[in-house]
Amino acid sequence: MADQAATLLEALPDLAGRSVLVVGCGDGRFPRLFRGGGARRVVGVDAAQTLIAVAQREEERDPVGISYEVHQLARLPVMGAFDVVVAFLDSPGHLDRVAASLVAGGLLVVVATNGLTLEEALRDNGFQDIVLHRHESGDVHSARKAS
Questions:
Q1: What distance in Å separates the CA atoms of residue 5 and residue 11, rounded to the nearest whole number?
Q2: What pLDDT, in 10s, does the model give residues 22-72?
Q3: Crossing angle for the helix pair 29-36 and 2-11, to the nearest 10 degrees
Q4: I want to staple 144 with a disulfide (CB 3.0 to 4.6 A). Which of 59, 72, 83, 129 is the partner?
Q5: 134: Cα within 13 Å, side-chain hemisphere
Q6: Rounded CA gap, 83 and 112, in Å?
């Protein structure tokens, strides 16, 4: 996990002053890492109420200004306008829902699980500057939303 986190961090720009949405945030580990990296606004979303509860308890214990919400990926609403969206996906099926909260010119970073390849789906959804960062635990794709 630590090596995959390093691969994910390599794919991200400097987060200082940026807004970040984390889809599939789990227990809040990555949202806290991004907030600590200078992101001005961080929102974490996960389908598992139990994981969101863990993240919220940690936020209550040590508040850093992260908000968490429970949403199923298939019904993910537009969460606002974010400079960076980080998503943990095992299928390209909901890429459009994830990208809907990204500002034009914003960066989408997807940790692809289960050997998922996303280049074609990213191009089909109008993304540019697609970069693949290989990792044995799951590739990390980054792409810029067309302006």
A1: 10
A2: 999 999 999 999 999 999 999 999 999 999 999 999 999 999 999 999 999
A3: 50
A4: 129
A5: 0
A6: 20
Does the predicted model carry a pTM greater than 0.70?
A: yes
CA distance 129 to 127: 7
- Residue 42 pairs in a beta bridge with 20, 66
> Which residue, chain included where needed, has tokens 């969460």?
79
What is the tens place of the pLDDT at every residue in 122-139? 998 889 999 988 777 668
User: Which DSSP symbol is given to 76?
Assistant: P
User: CA 56 to CA 62: how far, in whole Å?
Assistant: 10
Question: Cβ distance 101 to 107 under 8 Å?
Answer: no
